[in-house]
Design goal:
- The complex is a heterotrimer of chains A (153), B (195) and C (621).
- Chain A has 153 residues and is mainly α.
- Chain A is built from six helices and no strands.
- A five-stranded mixed β-sheet of chain B has the order 3-2-1-4-5.
- Chain B starts with 23 loop residues before the first helix and ends with a helix.
- Classes of the chains: A mainly alpha (153), B alpha/beta (195), C alpha+beta (621).
- Chains A and C meet through α5 of A and α12, α13, β1, β6 and β8 of C.
């Protein structure tokens, strides 16, 4: 619990790329780093990216991302580096792999199901024709009753 | 299709939707609730380490005090060791500190410290005040090693085997129970491993 | 059966009294009450002491139960025209919900638990929550998604009765609409609060708790429109019953999410898995029970479709399905980490990148249906006349889309603006057709306009609000600009055509915090353009610091400025932003709610008036 409080206190200190010593990077690196940072999760925070978080570790990660990009590493190399050490947890954009198949294909599946439902609902039994199912007891009774009532006015 | 049509009576196919569709919402609720129930047994903050069974990354740390040799990779070879990540800003580290002092004194295992994210001098001052249980210490001011190790907070303690590989990560303070029930058995097991 | 009505009213009075006692305990800082001691402080301003009553788990659950009782009592008091059996059943279901939640409050979340000996001082309160917008956030949100319990109760009652008739439909729709309006306000205000308080200019984070309120909103929007079809055409009955149950289920799931600790969120209350078990049991009971009754009884109420695929009902159904897909996507993304953890023990995260990719396309489909729907006739229509009417809006949309996309060099920005313009154009076109502009004299058109029932104005306002929000969201996503600089006093940073100079740094001591205020003067193209201030506030009793961003709101863009800590050299890291059309996001949200409230005020749709509406003609929408 105490540890959680420490983490929470750290996470609540505000952002704006505060604590790093102002090491300047080129605008291209900054832009790329910010893009990338938005998809990396701050592991000590409650559900924020490292760009949005005020936690000191997030600031260190932001600097590390910039340093690596400035050193010429590609975006996917930095992602692999982080993923290697923190697992898939650190990626806010979930990778496309076996256990995320349903996550990424789900929406299309939902759409297909909904489309099927819409058509099935609105076009009943046009393509299928089947013999009427036999009447149940109650229905026979109802039928007899109505037949005996004769034609309605 | 008028209501008098015989094909219409008593069938579910008035709308062309299969009858079993009505059971889907309940079914989905049951499945989802199953996952919720599972979720209640988990701690969403717990992040298992990806570094288990991997060699300790190569690192260079700053010195805790002027002239002192900082912790280095070689110090972790040849014997089972504990590497404890701490900081003077970390309240839980203070909570576990007496236990670390006891471990250091007992000599059961080599105990080293990484002073994480402390401004120069702060770590040394903190250790001077509360006691220094560590054989060797190094300062990781910019989290380079911490990130390399996948550290998510302090305190965290890594159990390193003779060959310099990470074998276990303890997240959170080391209590007497954690020491006797979790760490000591692991250390004994690692010591029994052939060199 | 009569006892039910009295019981409902008495229940409300008793719970209201209990709630008043809690508020009083906070107001006088009675630290012998545990929640007061843990969440309040003598230094807090009185207003925030009072709002702290619902700022923690126990108090907010009491508020939850209060709103539940409020809606039940409303049915009891105003439901004179309801058939007695239906009314009794509705009150029975609602009462059962209330009893279950009261049990939850009493046994696991007692707000009146005592602390002996009473401490002399409280443990303070999260300074981030000392804010008027946020104080109003839980009440409006609860009026929203707890209010949806009414739809649930009515649906379960109808399923038990085996009957859905005019009175039922007449009753359900206004209450769903009212709850929806409050939910819209609650979510909008929550987003606005996050924007100005959380210090980094975001307004939606796809955080689990945000999603927990958004899912009921999506489904209740669908419910709103299908309830309309039930009322006017007596169609989509089964669908509406299902949606009513689903929407309240999502409210319950949201409550579960926030309080059980199953997912991490910036927003979660102090969590307790034991409470989670109780809430999960309630979900299984309330939702599982209702859905089981639905599975067994709904067939009785099933009818063959009374409308063709191309018709207003068809468009509404299509739109409903898309909203359902959208809800499914949000649900999937929110809970997927849990599913993966359960099945493979792998820990993954699903963040904004996922939601942005999957959610936005669905909204485009929704916009298309929103444009077509009002153009189509009820029951059966052909697509071509509607499509022809939409040619001008389509041209407008394509035009706006191309121009903005090319000039702004952003594809998705162009798409968003194009669709927003298309929707906007379709509403104008609809109005022009209804008022027969160009076909009759202007005085005739004005006469027709004056004859518009309020519900029509509500529809126009709400849909227009959605278009406005689409523009705002697109602009913020596509054309935000940013600059970061480190400034000492006297230094300047620039963004676009504006230069920001840090003029002064002052420190002030206020009620329960210390404020460090930075004042910047702005120059636009060299000419003075006012100033902007940002603060860093330190709260001693919590040892935390927050940032108050400097925001200059504007019709076309917000200027946004936030600062970080002071470095050793006395410089500050400053983050400058231009937020184009930001205010349109929340203006759009409020317009949607306003449209709903306008519709509510239409006397034709007042509760308990089955005889008045019998002759609703096609003259109105």
């Amino acid at each position: 619990m105490k540890r959680a409080l420490v983490l929470l206190a750290l996470a609540l200190t505000p952002p704006a790329n505060a604590q790093e010593t102002p090491q300047t990077f080129t605008p291209e690196v900054e832009k790329a780093a910010r893009e990338l940072g938005k998809s990396l999760r701050c592991v000590v925070c409650q559900n924020q990216s490292i760009e949005d978080s005020g936690a000191p570790l997030a600031a260190d990660m932001r600097r590390m991302v910039r340093e690596r990009l400035a050193a010429g590493e590609r975006r996917d190399q930095v992602i692999t580096y982080m993923r290697d050490r923190y697992g898939n947890f650190v990626l806010l954009n979930p990778p496309f792999q076996v256990d995320t198949l349903f996550l990424w294909l789900g929406p299309a599946l939902f759409a297909a199901l909904a489309a099927w439902g819409w058509f099935a609902f609105l076009r009943p039994g046009r393509t299928t024709s089947h013999a009427p199912s036999p009447l149940s007891e109650d229905e026979m009774e109802e039928l007899r009753k109505r037949m005996s009532q004769g034609p309605q006015p | 299709m008028s209501g008098n049509d015989l094909t219409d009576i008593g069938t579910d196919r008035r709308t062309g939707l299969p009858g079993w569709l009505m059971l889907v919402p309940v079914g989905l609720l049951a499945i989802v609730s199953g996952f919720f129930a599972f979720g209640l047994t988990q701690d969403p903050h717990a992040l298992p380490s990806t570094m288990i069974d991997r060699p300790m990354p190569a690192f260079t740390l700053g010195s805790l005090r002027e002239g002192e040799e900082p912790l280095a990779n070689q110090d972790l070879l040849g014997t089972v060791s504990l590497v404890n990540v701490f900081g003077s800003w970390c309240p839980s580290c203070l909570v576990e500190h007496p236990e670390l002092i006891a471990i250091g004194r007992s000599g059961e295992v080599a105990l080293h410290g990484i002073d994480w994210r402390d401004p120069p001098g702060a770590g040394a001052e903190w250790l001077a005040r509360y006691g220094n249980p560590y054989a060797k210490t190094g300062v990781d001011a910019d989290s380079k090693l911490a990130i390399d190790l996948g550290v998510t907070g302090a305190p965290e303690t890594f159990v390193i085997d003779r060959g310099g590989r990470i074998r276990y990560k303890q997240v959170g303070p080391i209590t007497p129970e954690v020491w006797t029930e979790t760490l000591l058995p692991i250390i004994r097991e690692l010591e029994a491993e052939p060199a | 059966m009569q006892a039910g009505a009295s019981a409902a009213i008495v229940q409300l009075l008793l719970i209201a009294f209990a709630f008043a006692c809690l508020v009083w305990a906070f107001a006088v800082s009675d630290f012998s009450v545990r929640v007061v001691a843990t969440n309040s402080h003598t230094l807090k301003p009185l207003f925030y002491k009072i709002t702290a009553a619902w700022g923690q788990h126990e108090g907010s659950m009491l508020l939850w139960v209060l709103v539940l009782a409020l809606f039940g009592a409303a049915v009891a008091a105003f439901g004179k025209d309801l058939p007695a059996t239906l009314k009794a059943r509705v009150l029975g279901v609602q009462g059962l919900l209330g009893a279950t939640f009261l049990a939850f409050v009493i046994f696991t979340s007692n707000p009146f638990a005592r602390l002996t000996p009473a401490p002399l001082e409280g443990m303070g309160f999260n300074p981030l929550l000392q804010d008027p917008g946020l104080a109003a956030h839980p009440p409006t949100l609860y009026l929203g998604y707890v209010g949806l319990s009414i739809a649930y109760s009515f649906s379960v009652a109808a399923l038990i009765e085996g009957r859905v008739d005019a009175a039922w439909a007449r009753w359900v729709r206004p209450w769903v609409l009212a709850a929806w309006c409050f939910l819209t306000v609650g979510i909008t205000m929550g987003s606005l609060w996050a924007y100005y308080e959380l210090g980094w200019g975001g307004w939606w984070f796809w955080d689990p708790v945000e999603n927990a309120s958004f899912m009921p909103w999506l489904i209740s929007t669908a419910l709103l429109h299908s309830a309309m079809v039930v009322e006017r055409r007596h169609a989509l009955v089964n669908w509406t019953l299902l949606l009513s149950i689903l929407t309240f289920t999502l409210s319950l799931v949201g409550t579960f999410l926030v309080r059980s600790g199953v997912l991490t969120s910036v927003h979660a209350f102090a969590v307790d898995p034991a409470r989670g078990v109780f809430i999960l049991a309630m979900i299984l009971g309330a939702s599982g029970g209702a859905l089981t009754i639905y599975a067994l009884r709904a067939r009785k109420l099933q009818q063959p479709p009374t409308f063709a695929p191309v018709s207003r009902e068809g468009a509404i159904l299509a739109n409903n399905l898309m909203l359902l897909i959208a809800t499914g996507v949000v649900f999937l993304g929110t809970f997927y980490p849990l599913i993966v953890d359960a099945l493979t023990s792998d820990k993954i995260s699903v963040g904004p990148p996922y939601f942005d990719t999957t959610f936005s396309p669905i909204m485009l489909g929704v916009i298309i249906m929103m444009a077509f729907g009002p153009m189509l006739r009820w029951r059966s229509d052909t697509a071509r006349p509607a499509a022809r009417s939409l040619l001008y809006p389509l041209a407008g949309g394509v035009g706006v889309g191309l121009v903005s996309g090319v000039l702004g060099q952003n594809l998705w920005g162009g798409v968003g603006f194009g669709f927003g313009a298309f929707l906007f154009g379709s509403l104008i076109r609809w109005g022009a057709l209804r008022l027969r502009i160009g076909q009759v004299k202007t005085s005739q058109s004005l006469f027709l306009a004056r004859a518009f029932p309020r519900a029509t104005w509500g529809f126009l306002c709400a849909h227009l609000g959605f278009a406005v929000a689409v523009f705002g969201i697109t602009a913020m996503s596509a054309w935000q600009t940013e600059a970061v600089a480190t400034l000492k006093a006297g230094e300047t940073a620039s963004l676009g055509d504006r230069a920001y100079t840090l003029e002064s740094i002052s420190v002030e001591l206020r009620e329960n915090y210390e404020a460090q205020r930075l004042t910047f003067s702005i120059r636009k193209d060299g000419a003075p353009d006012g100033s902007i201030e940002t603060e860093r506030r330190y709260y001693p009793e919590r040892d935390t610091t927050t940032t108050e961003a400097g925001i200059r709101p504007g019709l076309l863009e917000n200027l946004y400025l936030a600062t970080g800590e002071e470095t050793e050299s006395g410089a500050f890291t400053v983050r400058l932003n231009r937020h184009p059309l930001a205010m349109w996001i929340w203006a759009g949200g409020l317009m949607m709610a306003a449209g709903g409230f306008i519709s509510l005020s239409d006397r034709r749709f007042r509760v308990g008036a089955p005889h008045r509406v019998a002759a609703t003609t096609a003259a109105n929408i």
